[in-house]
């Protein structure tokens, strides 16, 4: 795959409240370029909100976000969201457009790429995820796993510096999870900078370079997978792991 050289992402002391609900309570997160960070923690701990704040779908109340050491808070948020690709649990594909059109749409509309060029690039990325032969199908005729791979191709076609995955395999039938995780692992190995919210502890442990455990809007522990999974330092992480493993 492509060579990646940028994409170091740093969130510093991020706070966010929804009304009186203080959801992010001073989050620090540092993801070195070319590495994969996984984000684990119980439901409601603020993981999805953190991703949305980091790409400024939601503005933090306070704190800073930097890419390659430069604050992005003054940057146009639309431009920032082209630098950070996002893949959701629900694939969010347009059902009435073909697979290729789903992938090429943003290239054409946002990147102003001529249509034939955008299609060529879409086909190239569909090929990368093993779905070039589905280019002219509608998303509804693909399996959930294939649809998620299309969503990943769509994000990659924008050539982001960082990729976010928010429970990308949680909506899939069990037999389809493996293919998507394998694609994510390939991407991680290729040197993409990734932040992955996941319940897949196998992925977190075997693929990611660092693991961050969140609970109640704070980072409770962060460290290399070996440490997090075999030598948790806090009762909260020990409790979380014994509940899910
Ligand atoms: P996680 O992804 O770890 O399950 P979330 O980031 O989705 O957690 O949610 C963290 C907390 O913020 C939860 O209490 C949730 O109900 C609340 N929350 C999330 N989004 C909103 C919103 N748009 N408005 C109000 N509360 C929200
Ligand atoms: Mg979530």
UniProtKB/TrEMBL annotation:
<dbReference type="Pfam" id="PF00005">
    <property type="entry name" value="ABC_tran"/>
</dbReference>
<keyword id="KW-0029">Amino-acid transport</keyword>
<feature type="domain" description="ABC transporter">
    <location>
        <begin position="9"/>
        <end position="241"/>
    </location>
</feature>
<dbReference type="GO" id="GO:0005886">
    <property type="term" value="C:plasma membrane"/>
</dbReference>
<keyword id="KW-0813">Transport</keyword>
<keyword id="KW-0472">Membrane</keyword>
<dbReference type="GO" id="GO:0015424">
    <property type="term" value="F:ABC-type amino acid transporter activity"/>
</dbReference>
<dbReference type="InterPro" id="IPR003439">
    <property type="entry name" value="ABC_transporter-like_ATP-bd"/>
</dbReference>
<keyword id="KW-0547">Nucleotide-binding</keyword>
<dbReference type="InterPro" id="IPR017871">
    <property type="entry name" value="ABC_transporter-like_CS"/>
</dbReference>
<keyword id="KW-1003">Cell membrane</keyword>
<dbReference type="InterPro" id="IPR030679">
    <property type="entry name" value="ABC_ATPase_HisP-typ"/>
</dbReference>
<dbReference type="GO" id="GO:0016887">
    <property type="term" value="F:ATP hydrolysis activity"/>
</dbReference>
<dbReference type="InterPro" id="IPR003593">
    <property type="entry name" value="AAA+_ATPase"/>
</dbReference>
<dbReference type="GO" id="GO:0005524">
    <property type="term" value="F:ATP binding"/>
</dbReference>
<comment type="similarity">
    <text>Belongs to the ABC transporter superfamily.</text>
</comment>
<dbReference type="InterPro" id="IPR027417">
    <property type="entry name" value="P-loop_NTPase"/>
</dbReference>
<keyword id="KW-0067">ATP-binding</keyword>
<protein>
    <submittedName>
        <fullName>Peptide ABC transporter ATP-binding protein</fullName>
    </submittedName>
</protein>
<dbReference type="InterPro" id="IPR050086">
    <property type="entry name" value="MetN_ABC_transporter-like"/>
</dbReference>
């Amino acid at each position: 795959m492509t060579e990646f050289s940028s994409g170091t992402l740093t969130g510093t002391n991020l706070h966010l409240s929804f009304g009186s609900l203080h959801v992010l309570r001073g989050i620090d997160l540092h993801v070195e370029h070319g590495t994969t960070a996984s984000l684990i923690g119980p439901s409601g701990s603020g993981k999805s909100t953190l991703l949305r704040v980091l790409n400024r779908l939601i503005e933090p109340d306070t704190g800073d976000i930097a890419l390659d050491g430069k604050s992005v808070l003054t940057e146009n948020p639309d431009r920032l969201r082209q630098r950070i690709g996002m893949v959701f649990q629900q694939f969010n594909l347009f059902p009435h457009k073909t697979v290729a059109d789903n992938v090429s749409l943003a290239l054409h509309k946002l990147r102003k790429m001529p249509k034939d060029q955008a299609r060529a690039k879409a086909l190239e990325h569909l090929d990368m995820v093993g779905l070039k032969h589905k280019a002219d199908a509608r998303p509804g005729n693909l399996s959930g796993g294939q649809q998620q791979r299309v969503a990943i191709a769509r994000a990659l076609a924008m050539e982001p510096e960082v990729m976010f995955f928010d429970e990308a395999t949680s909506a899939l039938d069990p037999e389809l999870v493996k293919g998507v995780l394998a694609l994510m692992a390939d991407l991680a190995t290729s040197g993409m900078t990734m932040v992955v919210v996941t319940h897949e502890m196998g992925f977190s442990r075997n693929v990611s370079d660092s693991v961050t455990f969140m609970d109640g809007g704070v980072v409770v522990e962060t460290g290399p997978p070996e440490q997090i999974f075999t030598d948790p330092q806090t009762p909260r992480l020990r409790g979380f792991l014994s509940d899910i493993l």
